[in-house]
Amino acid sequence: VESLNQSSLPTTTNKHKKKRKKKSKKRNLPEEIENDASLKKYWVQRYKLFSRFDEGIKLDRESWYSVTPEKIAEHIAERCRCDVIVDAFCGSGGNAIQFAFTCEKVLAIDIDPVKLENAKHNAAIYGVEDRIDFICGSFFDIAPTLKADIVFLSPPWGGPEYTNCETYSIAEMGDFGTKAFTLAKNISDNIAFFLPRNSNVDELVCLAGPGNQVELEQNMLNNKIVTITAYYGKELIEWGKGNQLFKDTNNQLNMLDDTGYAADFEIQDSVTYQNSSLSCDDE
Ligand SMILES: C[S@@+](CC[C@H](N)C(=O)[O-])C[C@H]1O[C@@H](n2cnc3c(N)ncnc32)[C@H](O)[C@@H]1O
Fold this sequence. Notes:
It is built from twelve helices and twelve strands. By secondary structure, the chain is α/β, with parallel strands linked by helices. It has a single domain (56-274), classed as Rossmann fold, CATH 3.40.50. Strands 1, 2, 3, 4, 5, 6, 7, 11 and 12 form a nine-stranded mixed beta sheet that branches. It has a three-stranded antiparallel beta sheet with strand order 8-9-10, with no helix packed on it. The site of S-adenosylmethionine has 22 residues, from α5, α7, β2 and α9. Residues 1-30 are annotated as: Disordered. InterPro entries: RNA_cap_Gua-N2-MeTrfase, SAM-dependent_MTases_sf.
């Protein structure tokens, strides 16, 4: 009997241990995730958002669903290599951090001081905070004072509900759509506009203006189209031409850059649209 009791002991203890482990795992969840079940799916994907998440990345509630996944941010930053870039809506720094690896200076703007503080903190984890000027304020006020080679626009899309409609119109963004684009255009012709994957293509072509082009790139992660980036301006569109796309053994499209480096993200081939809007007299 004694030996039986003893042999059953460790099982009970293990059970307790398991319970304790589970509990402590739960306690490790950030407060904003713990308090909101709808955010749990983003927590599962935290390393997709920041590969160095465990080193102390900080995100507020909104940033959990609006930060750009790191691989995509890295790719966009490669395309946007330049001296000075404006990240007009920098949030918690998903894009700004990657721009700091490819650009001499990043002007990172956000209206929300908490997000900006988190962006600064997160940039320090990646060791790039010195290359970023963090500016708290509204892009709509600050834009006329800015000078840069490229402007990156990643405005709010109105929450995760953007996927509910078949086609997303930039009108849904209000001022963050056409108005933000016009302000960006006064800073530079080279604009990268980060948009929902179901964005209305006609509207994006229209934004290019008569006689101009836009390149629409579908950003894919693990075979899924996650977002679209619309590139305006000769320099940004030319970039794709100097790089080769090739299909790897898994039939994935990959990119081989000038140095022969094969980037390990997946992108879908992009399409360049020409806006050939003409006008004529009615009579
Ligand atoms: C989609 S999030 C940007 C996410 C960012 N690209 C990232 O990867 O972390 C949009 C951001 O725009 C900011 N924002 C909203 N209105 C703004 C304004 N008028 N000027 C500047 N930033 C604004 C929000 O606070 C939010 O952080």
